[in-house]
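can u do me a favor
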């Protein structure tokens, strides 16, 4: 009876460690398991393939699996709201984030980043036929942005040139739905992601913001401050760039490179 009770206590203790910590080891070849978080609403970077179940797929997912394979790790992926990703790293609930995240100065105060692995631009997305064709056309309009995204900062930058109202939502599909419902006149979304919506929904359209050199949004991998994994992953990322592996992934998911 005592042995059975002791076994139960030990099992509970292990489960608590697994829940509270980040990296663990797996039974398959004793590979260390890293906990990664993303925001799976950002096609083609990361999204749920509803046709095949609830698996998260995309460019970032392929990239992290390729990198972790090189480094001898396994990765467990979980889905969080975008604005919860940095706090999850800070509280050590996860080891890394791939979510099309730009290494802004503000974020770099809280977490570490690898080099940028992909660059894109900002787009103004609207309902088709809205007659919003320039930044000046946003005057007096309601513009949506994803909470915690670099596009929030872009909206503040644009507000210095033209006055409009901003509202935020947790996920990109929410922004698109608000546009279609007429509650938002426009939204600021990364061009690569926006183009995916244009392909599946002919009722929305958009244009790239060509206002200044700050327009470019680069994606990098985020880690806990002082994490030893940052240097490892950055080295493997450079190897993928040099070997052409990264370019192959870009061609697979985006049809071209930037």
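np, heres the sequence
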């Amino acid at each position: 009876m005592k042995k059975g009770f002791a076994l139960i206590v030990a099992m509970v203790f292990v489960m608590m460690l697994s829940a509270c910590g980040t990296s663990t080891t797996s039974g398959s070849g004793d590979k260390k398991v890293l906990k990664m978080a993303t925001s799976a609403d950002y096609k083609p970077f990361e999204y749920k393939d509803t046709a095949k179940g609830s698996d998260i797929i995309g460019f970032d997912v392929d990239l992290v699996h390729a990198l972790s394979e090189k480094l001898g790790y396994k990765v467990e992926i979980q889905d969080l709201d975008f604005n919860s990703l940095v706090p999850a790293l800070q509280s050590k609930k996860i080891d890394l984030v791939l979510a099309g995240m730009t290494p802004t100065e503000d974020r770099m105060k809280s977490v570490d980043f690898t080099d940028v692995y992909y660059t894109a631009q900002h787009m103004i997305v609207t309902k088709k036929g809205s007659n919003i064709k320039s930044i000046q056309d946003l005057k007096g309009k309601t513009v949506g942005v994803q909470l915690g995204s670099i596009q929030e900062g872009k909206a503040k930058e644009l507000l210095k040139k033209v006055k409009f109202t901003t509202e935020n939502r947790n996920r990109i599909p929410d922004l698109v739905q608000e546009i279609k419902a007429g509650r938002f006149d426009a939204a600021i979304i990364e061009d690569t992601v926006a183009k995916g919506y244009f392909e599946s929904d002919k009722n929305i359209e958009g244009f790239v913001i060509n206002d200044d050199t700050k327009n470019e949004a680069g994606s990098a991998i985020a880690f806990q401050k002082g994490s030893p994994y940052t240097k490892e992953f950055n080295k493997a990322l450079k190897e993928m760039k040099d070997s052409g592996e990264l370019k192959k992934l870009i061609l697979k998911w985006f049809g071209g490179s930037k």
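The longest helix spans residues 2-20. hope that helps!!
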